Amino acid sequence: MELNPIENTKTKVVLELIGEDHTLCNPIRKELWNDKTVKVAGYNIEHPLVSNPVLIIEATDAKKSLLSAIERLKKQNKDFLTKIKVLK
Q1: Which of 59-87 are b and which e, b meaning 16 or more Cβ less than 10 Å from the residue's Cβ?
Q2: Confidence class of residue 87 from pLDDT cuts 50, 70 and 90?
Q3: How would CATH label the architecture of 2-86?
């Protein structure tokens, strides 16, 4: 994955996620909405075959909110992996 920062201010981050799709963007968007400081969290893919998703975050501290959301997702994935391993 490659990131192309389009806008990066304290309150707004806009990133193009090159080579990604809904699989990565949707969980990030959903997790961002769990942060009370987030005002806008979404993404757009203009055309699924030729466009990259553009993630848009507006918050009190947009970069901090994004990093926190990613850390929460990492923990959820780790917990899920642990539970799956128990099923073996």
Answers
A1: beebeebbebbeeebeeeeeeeeeeeeee
A2: confident
A3: 2-Layer Sandwich (3.30)
Please check whether residue 62 is in contact with residue 12, taking contact to mean a CB–CB distance below 8 angstroms. Answer: yes
The rounded distance, in Å, linking the Cα atoms of 9 and 62 is 8
Rg of the chain (C-alpha set): 14
pTM, entire model: 0.91
| Dihedral, 50, 55, 71, 39 alpha carbons, nearest 10 | -160
pLDDT digits (tens, 9 = 90+) for 17-29: 999 999 999 999 9
* 12, burial (CB in 10 Å: exposed 0-12, middle 13-18, buried 19+): middle
